[in-house]
Structure formats: C-alpha cells, structure tokens
User: What shape does this take?
Amino acid sequence: MKRAVALAACACIAWASRGAFAGETGACAPLAGNPTISQFSQSMPARPQRIVVLEFMFAEDVAALDMTPVGVVDPEYYDGWIGYDSARFKGVPVVGTRQEPSLEAIASTKPDLIIGVGYRHAPIFAALDRIAPTVLFQFSPDVQNGKGARTQLEWTRSIFHTIACMTGREQQARDVDAKLDAGLAHDAARLKQAGLTGTHFALLQELGLPDRYWAYTGNSTAAGVARALGVHLWPEKPTREGTVYVTSADFLQRPDVAVLFVTASGADTTVDAKLDSPVWRFTPVRKEGRVTIVEPNIWGFGGPMSALKLGDMITEKLLALPRK
Assistant: This one.
C-alpha cells in the first residue's frame, strides 16, 4: 500500500489542543513526542479515510468526528457499553476482538490507517504495520512515572485531538470540545443550584464477583468529569488503570460517600438484588438509601461523548438521591 506522506515531512499530526501537553497553540504537531502514543509507523497517510479501529474509545472518537471506520472489533459490546452513534457501525466489517484482532480480516478492508492500543496490540505492531500505517496509543497516563496528576479525561481528549489531526478533522474536534465543555458546565450549574457542590460519591462497576467491584479512582475519566462538575470522586488516590477493587466493608467508615453502582444487568435491576452482601445493610450509605443503580451503557474508558454522558448521569443520579 502506498504511504502518502513521510512522517518527517508531516507537520500536522498531533493537535496540542487545550494546552494539554504541548502548549496552547491549538496547532497540530508531529507524533514524535506525543505522550499518548506508544508506537507509530514511520510514514503516515495525509488524510486517511479507510480507518480500522481496535478499541471502543477509538470507534467513538472517529464517530464523533463524523467518520465511519472500515473495520471494528467487538461491535456488540460497543453497543452494550458505549452505544454512541451505534447505527453508524451497522454493516461495518468485524475484524476480530479487542484482545485478538484478525490480521486477515484487517487486511481485507484495505485500510490506510490502523488505530490500536499499546498494552494490547504492541506484540502485533509489526504485522499491523505491514498491512497499513499504524498508531498505538497509551491508554492511560503513566502514574508510576509522575504523570498521574492528569486524569484520563484530559488524556483521552488529547487522544481524540490527535486522531482529529491525523484525519484533518480539527474543526469537528473543536465542535465536540465545545459541546462537552458546555454540557459539563450546565451540569455543574444544576448541582450548584441544588446545593450539591462538594458532594462525595463512589462510582462502582459490577464485575460479576461476590461483593467485589471496581471503583473508579482519582485519575480516572470519572474523576475528571467529577472535578468539572464540582463534586468529589472517592477513592481519590490515583492508580495505574484508574480503578481499584473495593468491597462493601470499605463503606462502613465512609458515611459521606454516596454510591452510584453501574450494573451489567438491565435498568430494572434493584439495589437489593445487586448489593446482597450481608455487610451492605450495615453501611451508613445503604441505611440512608444513598445507593443508586446505573444502567449499562456507561463506560469509564471512552472518549469525549462518553464523558458527556457520564457527566449527565452523575448529575441526574446525585440530584435524585436523598440529601444528608
């Protein structure tokens, strides 16, 4: 496949938008030095149109930029966990799973760009690169090397801006930025008006394990959204993946923390059905009825549209809870 533009000659690849990593110019810059990227091909197409995406976040990103990929992975799970613009992906060829993409299926789509994630796809980078120019993103900030001060919200927005630059969709990205910022500001105002600024809450993710859940931590996308809303996500300590395991016992000494519980079941699931550990009934938050079920289609590892949806959900759920 012919590669249109050598990387050394390309001045407009990664958009340093919103001052996130490389100043506040809003201009595109070379991929080299972009901390969100773990690997990339030595030549890149000028404005790729035939894009294969190997992770949900990137599928959401290209959809938000009004592009339809030519290959996707796990579309049924995308529909269940993210759901943004799902109709766009109907009929798009499936190229395997996120964990095991099919090289043959990817090649059959004749892509001019492949977008993957380093921690999953680094072992097959060379094979992907032989098919088409490839970019692998680092999924989260590197907490261990002192980059944990940024939340995954800022990180994923930078990934989104980079994809916008690679595809020549900078204006579409600015429009999405404006929509996200306006939505979060509106939700923050609603919470402030209700006297809920400063509220502490935990966002738990069901894992199908007995009384064991993911809690999104202080460097997660949920934490970045919470900060924009003027509320506080617990636990605050950053972790490598932006999550930590918790149990009902962790809430015995946290009477100030409301619980939003993301279930894998339907919206008609009850709190009693999900939080059936004997310890839960002794927690202050459960006694006060300050636990609420969140239906699926809330994904803590998505792009800007998922962040907007997350902000709306957090706002609605906090407004509906009994006041302390």
Summary: Residues 226 and 232 are 6 Å apart (CA to CA). The chain is about 35% helix and 15% strand. Confidence is low (pLDDT under 50) at residues 1-25. The longest helix spans residues 170-193.
